[in-house]
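C-alpha cells please, single chain.
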Amino acid sequence: MPTPKSSSHIRFAAVGDIHVRKDSGGSLRSLFAQADEAADALLLCGDLTDYGTEEEARVLVGELGAVHVPVVAVLGNHDYESGTPEIVAETLTRAGVRVLDGSVCEIEGVGIAGVKGFGGGFGRGALGAWGEPAIKLFVQEALNEAMKLEAALAKLRTRRRIALLHYAPVVGTVEGEPVEIFPFLGSSRLEDPLVRYPIDAVFHGHAHRGALQGRTLNGVPVYNVAKPLLQRSRPDAAPFFLYELPREPAGASAP
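Here you go.
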C-alpha cells in the first residue's frame, strides 16, 4: 500500500467526465500522476469513456497505469452509449478499479457508496410519474437509482462516509447550465437518501457548465467535479478536486 500522504488526514482526488476516446492515449497520464502524488485515493465520477466501448475502457486502463493508490468509480451516461456498460465496468474491474453500482467499498476507514444516478429534475420542477408509460418509465429509473443509493448507504458501518454519483442530487451544482436541461442533469430524488443517512460529502459530475459546490437540505457539501468545469473554473490548477477527511483513531466505530 502506498505511504499515506498525511498522518492526520486521508485525501481524495475526485474528477468526472474525462471522456476517454480511442485516441486519448497519453492525454491523462499527467493528471493521474498528479492525483496519485497528492491523494490517498482517486474517485472517478462517471463519463469515463466517450462512447462506452471496450476499446475506450482499455485506453483508460492504460492511462491509469500511473496511479498506485486505490481507484473507485461509478459509470455515467456516456459509458452506456454503446449498450455495453457491463463491458466497461468489467474492463476497469480487471485492472483493479472498484466500480460501484449500488455497492460500497472502504478506503482507509472511509466508507464510499456509489451509483450512477439519473435525471428527472429538482424540487417542484421534478417530473412526476403520471401520464404516458414512457414518462412513468423515466421517473421509475430515477427512483430505482435513488433506492440503490439508499441501500448502499445503509450498508456502510464506518464513521466517515462519502457518496459517489454521476448525476447531480441537488440543483445548486447544476446552476450555470441552461435551465431547460436541468431535468436531464440530475434529480432531487437522489438527495433524499443523502439526507436520511449521515454522510460527509457527495461528489458528482455531468454538469460541465454548472457550479463547483452546493449543499443538501441538511447542509452536506456536494461537489461537482466534472473535468471541463474544473478546468474552466481553476485554469491554473490540476483538473481534479482534492478533499480531505480526518483519519479516525484506531478502534473508532460508526455512531
